[in-house]
């Protein structure tokens, strides 16, 4: 009998004291265990999760955490887990258990489905009515937390983010005036801090001792006191609401308190206080962290600020200043930036966290045992190269670009959770409690973020784990453009000057004082562009090529030899003259301004006099060298063949599995090509003459793009070979909108037959334009053969521009009846009427055609034309005839093929749309503002 009593007592004790976690461990021990690394306040799990996913990418493993051992499932289970109901896999119970809700009170009442449903249904339906109050509250919160100072003011971001989010949350939870009550704000913030701190302390205490320790723990005492305090503040408001709800004329407030009173069974203040505390804990900390990261990322990557400002300004203009759902939907860049900030800084290393309420069998037979805790690895997914292009690079507009892909227009949004989204930023679709909280918090963050754009965060070095104790500086002071002088430099070739002058004109029109440096022959043209532009000539440098030098250039038998001569004569021999000019002007700038202004130098990338100081030579270095690239990129890349080879320019990238190895081999081979080696030797010799001493030199073509601090490049990413290793300082600016009549009359004299072109277009004829360009000027190459090739096409009107000669001066020119010839017609006027452009592939002309949406037939091989024409073929924008002299029949066939090919037209149309997303003026303005912010930040350090 004593034996039976002892056995019964043992079973009772076992039932009450046997840790359920031990039972679960017995059922899950077949899965490998990965342990977190011990750190002073617990364990670090990021590395452990990465280790587990790397070892078991498609299998289950266990993660040893500081609270519950967690079963980590691979990504393949995500969709299935999200479809399993809360009754089986509970996110609410997971939160309750992990923050020790029995002591912290979190989740004690929030587990009721009515609580979640009131948010899911009523609040979500009425969110649109909260936008205007939130905008007002965001303004109040930011002005109170950050201030209105136009001077640079330090703020401690996380502390102020907590207060801002608390104000915004309170506005929608209980409304004014209670939301602005300091006691309410303090309780909202402190309950969040005390909950996580208290739970962390209790998890380090043996479970048998927790009730005793919790009773005396200051944080737990604070939580209970704060709940009573919140209940006391809510009680009169609840009584007032309940008394008014029976009145038919009662105007229903749009806040959480009203929804809870209408949808949940209990109306007492203590119950409502616990619900509001639960929402605060679940939302305020995570949202404050998100806002903190967004601000740090704005400070660290300030080139995003100006485009974001422009987007908000344009959205406000289009909405008539009304902040509503449509206004919010227009903030695609802001939405993308916040989403990328979350991708880079996920709040949790795992997502889909659940407690298993009952044994759950998955589709492949795996059983998740009752009482276990599960999750999916989300951290590794944020850095997965299979999901993201260049995942370690912060691209604030990454998700905007993804949404531009047809079919993705409503995906990749910060405020929505799509089934296709494998990476869960803080919350996930199946997490009922957290999703409900996110429905409230996301608009808050969006509101706060776009209001914060009134300020200018200074640049800070950005690490993956920013120091939240460090202040950032903000200011409302806008850059004074008229007090920010800049230099703009161009090589002394007309084909370069006309484009660099267009950039100078944009800067001048923005209000920046511009000093333009180039050959004296261009002074009149440049200075008449704008009063803000002054001209400084190159010292002792011949202007352009002499007649003898040009004759020698044209006499060379191959394009490669011509290119080699041009590189040496124009780009290398000019180094001493350019360097002397720059140093003289930079010295005068320093004498005038001292350290009171940043020295900003925009330069044509082929002005190699700028190579001396960055490569180690003596001299004054600008604070920022901004390279202006008006050609295809010349950067070395594992993803492309070399730009610099004279023998095989224009090769399309290899696309096989061994592509990188093949490209690297090509870079090694090209070093020994005679022309390439001779050019680099000549360039290095000139640099040594200027005092440069170094063991290794880059290739000159790579140096063109690699040396500048910033690189602004003509074109768009869609018209370039893909480069996974492209540096983040490269910014595209689309195509020129004001170039084409530079060097000609400001109001060009149009030919007498110009109206016939518009009439032909109206009559349904196809317009084909052909131009020989300004460098390869032999009209027998392309212009004359095109006139001959199309002379029998009555359905076509050919418009030809001879450029370097008047038509009557062109030897052998016979103008067919369906053709019109002029020396020059601005592309701005001509191309909008053109159906096909026949060109030798000048980069500027091709860019202009793509901006307007004109398909092309290209044929050329000199300078960068081989690469440009390969890009036309690569992107499907036209037909590449791969020859400087393609012949009459090839031109005839190619024009006919382009006119009949809808696929080419569609691809050109898509590229034209991409060009429409870029604006040179905005890119220039943004770049100068970024540089000035960086300069001011470094002055303060």
UniProtKB/TrEMBL annotation:
UniProt keyword Iron present: yes
CDD domains with a match to the protein in the record: CYP503A1-like (cd11041)
Coiled coil: none
Keyword entries, A-Z: Iron, Metal-binding, Monooxygenase, Oxidoreductase
Keyword Iron tagged: yes
One example GO MF annotation: heme binding
Pfam families, alphabetized: EryCIII-like_C, p450
Cofactors named for this entry: heme
Gene3D superfamilies for the chain: Cytochrome P450 (1.10.630.10), Glycogen Phosphorylase B (3.40.50.2000)
Erythromycin biosynthesis protein CIII-like C-terminal domain segment(s): 814-914
UniProt xrefs under PANTHER family: CYTOCHROME P450, CYTOCHROME P450 MONOOXYGENASE AN1598-RELATED
Family the UniProt entry places it in: Belongs to the cytochrome P450 family.
Full protein name: Erythromycin biosynthesis protein CIII-like C-terminal domain-containing protein
């Amino acid at each position: 009998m004593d034996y039976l009593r002892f056995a019964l007592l043992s079973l009772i004790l076992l039932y009450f004291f046997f840790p359920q976690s031990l039972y679960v461990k017995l059922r899950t021990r077949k899965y490998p265990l990965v342990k977190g690394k011990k750190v002073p306040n617990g364990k670090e799990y990021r590395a452990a999760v990465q280790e587990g996913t790397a070892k078991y990418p498609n299998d289950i493993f266990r993660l040893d955490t500081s609270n519950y051992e967690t079963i980590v499932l691979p990504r393949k289970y995500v969709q299935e887990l999200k479809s399993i109901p809360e009754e089986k896999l509970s996110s609410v119970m997971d939160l309750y258990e992990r923050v020790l809700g029995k002591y912290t009170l979190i989740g004690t009442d929030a587990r009721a489905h009515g609580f979640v449903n009131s948010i899911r249904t009523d609040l979500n339906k009425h969110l649109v009515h909260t936008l205007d109050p939130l905008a007002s509250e965001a303004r109040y919160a930011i002005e109170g937390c950050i201030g209105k100072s136009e001077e640079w003011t330090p703020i401690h971001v996380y502390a102020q983010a907590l207060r801002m989010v608390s104000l915004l949350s309170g506005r929608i939870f209980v409304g004014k005036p209670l939301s602005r009550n300091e006691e309410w704000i303090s309780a909202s913030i402190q309950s969040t801090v005390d909950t996580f701190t208290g739970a962390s302390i209790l998890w380090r205490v043996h479970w048998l001792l927790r009730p005793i320790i919790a009773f005396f723990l200051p944080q737990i005492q604070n939580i209970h006191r704060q709940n009573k305090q919140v209940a006391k503040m809510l009680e009169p408001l609840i009584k007032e609401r309940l008394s008014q709800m029976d009145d038919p004329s009662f105007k229903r407030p749009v806040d959480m308190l009203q929804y809870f009173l209408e949808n949940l069974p209990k109306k007492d203040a203590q119950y409502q206080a616990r619900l509001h505390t639960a929402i605060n804990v679940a939302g305020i900390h995570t949202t404050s962290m998100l806002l903190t990261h967004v601000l740090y990322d704005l400070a660290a990557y300030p080139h995003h600020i100006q485009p974001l400002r422009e987007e908000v300004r344009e959205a406000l203009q289009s909405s008539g200043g009304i902040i509503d759902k449509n206004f919010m939907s227009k903030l695609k860049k802001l939405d993308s930036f916040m989403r990328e900030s979350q991708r880079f800084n996920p709040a949790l290393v795992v997502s889909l966290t659940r407690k298993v309420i009952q044994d759950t069998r998955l589709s492949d037979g795996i059983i998740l045992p009752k009482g276990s805790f599960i999750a999916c690895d989300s951290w590794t997914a944020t850095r997965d190269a299979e999901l993201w292009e260049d995942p370690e690079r912060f691209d604030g507009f990454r998700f905007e670009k993804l949404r531009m892909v047809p079919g993705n227009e409503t995906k990749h949004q910060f405020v929505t959770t799509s089934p296709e989204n494998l990476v869960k930023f803080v919350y996930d679709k199946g997490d009922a409690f957290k999703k409900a909280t996110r429905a409230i918090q996301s608009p808050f963050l969006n509101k706060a973020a776009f209001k914060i754009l009134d300020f200018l965060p200074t640049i800070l070095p950005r690490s993956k784990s920013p120091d939240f104790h460090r202040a950032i500086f903000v200011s409302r002071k806008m850059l004074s453009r008229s007090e920010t002088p800049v230099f703009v430099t161009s090589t002394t070739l007309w084909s370069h000057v006309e484009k660099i002058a267009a950039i100078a004109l944009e800067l001048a029109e923005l209000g920046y004082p511009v000093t333009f440096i180039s050959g004296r022959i261009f002074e009149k043209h440049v200075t008449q562009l704008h009063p803000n532009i002054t001209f400084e000539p190159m010292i002792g440098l011949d202007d352009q090529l002499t007649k003898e030098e040009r004759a020698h250039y044209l006499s060379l038998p191959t394009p490669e030899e011509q290119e080699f001569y041009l590189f040496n004569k124009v780009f290398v021999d000019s180094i001493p003259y350019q360097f002397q000019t720059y140093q003289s002007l930079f010295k005068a700038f320093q004498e005038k301004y001292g350290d009171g202004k940043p020295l900003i130098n925009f330069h044509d990338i082929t002005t190699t006099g700028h190579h001396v100081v960055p490569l180690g030579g003596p001299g004054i270095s600008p604070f920022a060298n901004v390279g202006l690239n008006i050609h295809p990129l010349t950067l070395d890349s594992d993803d492309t063949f070399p730009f610099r080879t004279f023998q095989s320019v224009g090769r399309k990238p290899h696309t096989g599995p061994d592509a990188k190895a093949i490209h690297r081999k090509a870079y090694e081979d090209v070093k020994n090509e005679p022309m390439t080696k001779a050019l680099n030797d000549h360039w290095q010799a000139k640099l040594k003459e200027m005092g440069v001493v170094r063991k290794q030199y880059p290739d000159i073509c790579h140096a063109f793009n690699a040396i500048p601090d910033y690189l602004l490049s003509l074109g768009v990413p869609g018209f370039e070979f893909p480069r996974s290793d492209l540096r983040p300082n490269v910014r595209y600016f689309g195509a020129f909108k004001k170039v084409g009549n530079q060097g000609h009359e400001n109001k060009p004299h149009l030919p007498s037959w110009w109206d016939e072109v518009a009439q032909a277009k109206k009559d349904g004829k196809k317009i084909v334009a052909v131009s020989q360009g300004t460098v390869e000027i032999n009209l027998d190459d392309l212009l004359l053969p095109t006139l001959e090739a199309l002379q029998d096409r009555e359905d076509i009107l050919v418009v030809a521009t001879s450029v370097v000669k008047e038509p009557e001066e062109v030897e052998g020119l016979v103008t067919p009846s369906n053709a019109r010839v002029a020396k020059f017609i601005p592309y701005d006027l001509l191309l909008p009427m053109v159906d096909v452009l026949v060109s030798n592939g000048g980069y500027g002309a091709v860019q202009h055609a793509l901006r307007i949406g004109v398909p092309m037939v290209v044929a050329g091989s000199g300078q960068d034309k081989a690469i440009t024409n390969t890009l036309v073929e690569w992107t499907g924008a036209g037909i590449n005839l791969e020859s400087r002299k393609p012949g009459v029949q090839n031109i005839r066939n190619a024009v006919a093929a382009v006119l009949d090919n809808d696929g080419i037209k569609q691809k050109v149309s898509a590229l034209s749309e991409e060009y429409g997303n870029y604006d040179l003026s905005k890119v220039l303005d943004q770049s100068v503002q970024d540089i000035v912010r960086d300069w001011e930040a470094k002055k303060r350090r």
